[in-house]
Amino acid sequence: MTYKFRVGLRPEWLLSGPGQDSVPLQEVLALLAAIDATGHIAGACKACGLSYRHAWGVLRKFEESFGTALLITRRRQGTKLSPFAQRLLWANRRIDARLMPTLESLASELQEELERLLPEAGPHLRLHASHGFAVEALMQHMSGRTPGLELRYRTAIEALASLERGECDLAGFQVPLGEFEAPIMARYAQWLDMQDYRLIHLAVRNTGLFVEAGNPKRIRGIADLARPDVRFVNRQIGSSTRYLVSLLLERAGIPISAVQGYETNEFTHMAIAAHIASGMADTGVGVETAACRFGLDFIPLVRERYFFAIRQSSLDTPAMQDLLHIMRGPEYVGYVQQLVGYDASHTGQLQTLEQAFGKLPDAGGRA
Q: What Cα–Cα distance (Å) separates residue 293 from each residue in 116, 296, 336?
């Protein structure tokens, strides 16, 4: 049995002035995004389903409210956004990218609460995971199914700790291949029981530096983060990507204090990309998919395996078997495979921890 509704939450911009009611900006933001994409108002009107007259009315209204032009129109050269409108649009994209995990988690929680009130509601699976595009896609492919999948975005360590406490059924975490696997696994080891846990392989993905299209700063690798003219944007405290950055800097012999922007934090790969694309930083570390979606250049650093940890005892439950069926199906595997920088060759494969990593290192990093 499936349910046909999907709960979603989105941020809303409101503009107000002295003695004025708040006015939503969603229509003008959508119109500006369409003008930016098409290069002219006629194409933007078609994309947004607006009449030419109405579109100009919206633009004039908000130009009056802001006190500045939103468009620059030149004869025979089309229309482009003014610097103010460009900054407004990038601010909206950054906010969307930054808030997305929180809003998706809240929407998933609300959906599960509502579905439990429906007739024939069954048990659902609880997924706690660090943000990733394959996780995002899995939620879309599980949408409306019963049993359902409830998502909370967490750092990898928070997710694994939740699994140990019985607060979730699956815990998502990523591990780089190669020299950094052992120190990363040492951080996870205390929450991973070799006997009781199994792993579901989600994907392998490329992680590296994002830089502006054309790479005007000529950034080549981690060593460039020490340059005084390079502004860096980091992931949030506690994230595995942030810890990976610290390991990369340590290997390069660069102190954290030498990196301009090391304490500037964003919570998703898309937020890192938006931060750089809007000119607020020159580089940051994330998954290649996000760089592609924002038109950025990508400098590969490591390849990461992404897993779901589960308890052996939950493996044969109908809900877990249904999830595995979806993950192994051609529709989901095909979607993950087309994500830029992702490899879905082993998606849905079950492994023991020993098969995936050999003997786990202890908390000191020793095998």
A: 36, 8, 15
Q: Which residues pair with 203 in a beta bridge?
A: 306
Amino acid present at 290: A
Render pLDDT for 103-139 as a digit per residue (tens, 0 to 9): 877 877 777 677 667 666 556 799 999 888 999 999 8
DSSP state of 237: T
Please give the DSSP secondary-structure letter assigned to residue 236.
P
Task: Give residue 250's identity as a one-letter amino acid code.
Answer: E
C-alpha to C-alpha distance for 42 and 48, rounded to whole angstroms: 10
What are the distances in angstroms from CA 280 to CA 28, 33, 196, 221, 230?
A: 23, 19, 45, 19, 11
132 contacts 317 by C-beta, under 8 angstroms: no
Tell me the chain's radius of gyration from C-alpha atoms.
Answer: 23
Neighbour-count burial for 186-212, b at 16+ CB within 10 Å, e otherwise: bbbbebbeeeebbbbbbbbbbbbbbbb
User: Which one, of 54, 50, 61, 55, lies nearest residue 24 by Cα?
Assistant: 61
Handedness of CA 189, 191, 196, 198 (dihedral sign): negative
CA–CA distance, 13 with 11 (Å, rounded to integer): 7
User: Tell me: the pLDDT tens digits for 226-261?
Assistant: 999 999 999 999 999 999 999 999 999 999 999 999
Which amino acid, 259?
V
The C-alpha atoms of residue 309 and residue 351 are separated, in whole angstroms, by 10
Under the phi-then-psi rule, with left for phi > 0, alpha for psi from -120 to 50, and beta for the rest, what region is 215? left
Provide the whole-model pTM: 0.81
Instruction: Yes or no: say if 145 and 112 are a contact pair by the CB < 8 Å rule.
Output: no
- What does the buried/exposed string (b/e) look like for 214-231 if buried means 16 or more CB atoms within 10 Å of the residue's CB? ebeeebeebebbbbeebb
| Ramachandran area for residue 174 (φ above 0: left; ψ -120 to 50: alpha; else beta) | beta
Coil/strand/helix, residue 138: helix
3-class secondary structure for 53-119?
HHHHHHHHHHHHHHCCCCEEECCCCCEEECHHHHHHHHHHHHHHHHHHHHHHHHHHHHHHHHHCCCC
